[in-house]
Specification:
- By secondary structure, the protein is an alpha+beta fold.
- Helices cover about 20% and strands about 35% of the residues.
- The protein is built from seven helices and 14 strands.
- It is globular and about 65 Å long.
């Protein structure tokens, strides 16, 4: 298993650690340094453990349990909408209620099984995805709906999609289709699921354009009930402290398994190995 040295990487700590390359990034394979030799020795001594843990894919979102935010991490919606400096914040936590107020929503869309983008195909028919240029026998129903979040200061419109939408609705996309045919997906029936409930929401902001107009889109990346006790994450708490004490660009010694390679770019899934036998999982 090769050892690589990644220098001046961009780092994102959403759901563990994710790395990306920059124009100034450098990646060296099997660098002739003592740290790489030490890591290689550790890998050889713990090969059975590594081979057992890697297939579990603990770096994937569905295999992780996210810790609830600290009080210091929670923002007020009024701050997000009113303070000029908050316009540069790409993600934040809020504690709020949720209500669906926009009528006529289907709560699902038909997407590409490969790239998950809306494809405009008819359910039950073959189609070609124009995004990934692949033929599929059938589009895949995927959950998505728009909701209003309220924390006592202001309201914020946000989209819930895929896993987060399923967590909130307690329904799969197929269940939504069946329930909609029975005329049981009205606003009253849906909002009854959220009545008197508080949630922690991790919100991501993005700039988008529609019909020539630019606006900010808010997407729910994580939703957690605010009434339960904090859960234990499969990603070690050391991950958070590790990132909090580092700068945006880090030099890390990491082992990796190669998943795909093109002529110009190497795509790899990485996992950090530490000598205390507690691996920190991440991906690029």
């Amino acid at each position: 298993m090769p050892i690589i040295l990644g220098m001046r990487l961009s780092v994102n700590n959403y759901h563990g650690i994710s790395f990306g390359t920059l124009p100034i990034s450098t990646i060296l394979i099997d660098p002739p340094i003592s740290q790489a030799k030490n890591l290689d020795s550790w890998l050889k001594a713990n090969r059975e453990y590594v081979e057992r843990i890697v297939p579990q894919k603990l770096y994937e979102k569905e295999n992780q349990i996210t810790n609830k935010p600290l009080d210091s991490q929670i923002r007020k919606i009024s701050q997000i909408l009113c303070l000029p400096e908050m316009s540069q914040v790409k993600s934040f936590w809020i504690k709020s209620t949720l209500q669906v107020i926009k009528p006529g929503q289907q709560f699902y869309f038909l997407g590409c099984p490969g790239c998950s983008k809306a494809c405009g195909a008819v359910y039950g028919s073959e189609f070609t995805c124009f995004y990934c240029n692949t033929d599929f026998p059938n589009p895949k129903p995927m959950l998505r709906f728009e909701a209003e979040l309220y924390d006592g200061t202001r309201c914020l419109d946000a989209f819930a999609e895929h896993t987060e939408a399923q967590t909130l609705l307690h329904m799969s996309a197929e269940d939504v289709i069946t329930t909609a045919k029975e005329n049981k997906m009205g606003l009253d029936e849906v909002n009854e699921r959220f009545k008197d409930l508080l949630f922690f929401f991790h919100i991501r902001t993005s700039n988008t354009e529609m019909r020539g107009k630019k606006y900010i889109r808010h997407t729910i990346m994580t939703c957690l009930p605010a009434s339960e006790q904090p859960s234990t994450s499969q990603i070690s708490h050391e991950t958070d402290s590790f990132l909090n004490t580092q700068k945006r660009y880090l030099s890390l010694y990491i082992g990796f398994t190669l998943s795909r390679q093109t002529t110009s770019l190497i795509f790899a899934r990485f996992y950090l190995i530490k000598a205390d036998n507690k691996p920190h999982f991440c991906k690029v």
